[in-house]
Structure formats: C-alpha cells, structure tokens
Predict the structure.
Amino acid sequence: MTPRPVLVSWSSGKDSAWALHLLRQQPDQYDVRGIFTTVTPDSDRVSIQATPRSILRLQAERVGLPLYEIPIPDPCPNEVYEAAMLQFLDRVRDLPSHLTADTFAFGDLFLEDIREYREANLTGTGFEAVFPVWGMPTYQLSQQMLASGLKAIITAVSPTSKLDRSFAGRWFDQSFLDDLPTGTDPLGENGEFHTCVVDGPMFSHAIEVKPGEVIGRPVSRSHDGSGGTVTAWYADIELAET
C-alpha cells in the first residue's frame, strides 16, 4: 500500500507535535510532508498559542519539514478564517508532486464539534482529515508525553478557565499537572491553556529556551470580535541559544 501524503496542522503545541510523532511511527501508512499553521502578522506570532514566529520556524527546522504559514487577523471572523484556509488548499494543490498532499492531520482529542467543523470544511474539496490522537485518555497521554522527554512551555492561559496568571510561563511537567485545579483537562483540550513544544521525540534536538515576560492582553470573548473582551495571560519565550 502506498503511504498517504499528509500535512500536519501544527499549532506549535504538544498535541499537534504528538500527532506528528504518531504519524511518523506509521511510515507504511503515512508520508508526512510538511506542517502548517495560522499566524497573526500584527503580533508576529502563532495564532492562539502566541508562539513567536522565530520559535515556530526553529520547530520546523528541528522536525525537518517544510512550514506553511497562513496569515489571519486577530480577531478573525469565521468567514475570514475559512477563506484563508481555502486559499491554503489552493497553495497545496499547486505544490510540486513530492510535496503536495491530500490529507491533513489534526491533534484534536475529544471535542466532537471541532472535529465535525474540520471535516465539514474539507467536504467536497478533495482533501481528507485524520486525527491521530483522537480518543486517547488525556491523563495517560500526558504521562506518555512526559516519559518521552517532551518539553513545552505554557504560553497562554484562558480567562474562561480556572487557571490564573501564575500558570502562564510554567513548564508542562508533573508539577504543573499536579497543580491543575479540579476539572481542568490535563492537556488543556477544553482550551484552558496552550503550549509551545521545544523538545521531544519528534525533534532532531532541543530548542534551548526559557520562559519570558508574562503579560495580560485583552482578547475577544468570541472569534468574530463580538461580545466584548476579557484578559488572557500570555508568556513570552526567550531563546537561550547563542
């Protein structure tokens, strides 16, 4: 059987990194050809995760794959996001035969509405979606990640979660998991927190970084900018390499 050419949706966080790791363990089924992510040019960061683009590009280098950036505004109405993704599909169709793909992989774990949204947006386009980590128990998966040597920094804390400013900028480690308030998903699948991966089995070698300044930023209560704003906490990432 010929492996399916696939591009991985790369949030810069642990779940997408683990999805890439699992796909690469199945070379007879998947031919991973690149990673793609949305970026916000005004802030020069990955959308949602707030990972600096300089770190994002180092991640692509360390996983050894082409990176495709999709610029979107912040806030981003759904119709603007969907138009940007349709343009990206055209870019993928136009790639050379050894780089193009007809399958996209996502690191979603259990949110049915998100999965249905992704699948619906690809219906009729000629592209398909796969979900390598779907249905994995999140606490057990968090332990697998830590045991593998995966390292990540908490880059964003949602204002709608039980987490406060003190969780931003921490390392994703056992101490962090032990301190999570009751009811918080250990992988932040409900949006409680977001991460930036800097080491793990999907990397050729680590990106040497340290947590930077933690700041509060007003964010929209909804993706389209309606409903006013609330304060979310973000941690910068400082490169320690010389």
Q: What stands out?
A: The first strand starts at residue 4 and ends at 9. The chain is about 25% helix and 30% strand. The chain has a mean pLDDT of 94. The helical segments are 14-24, 53-63, 78-93, 112-122, 138-148, 174-179.
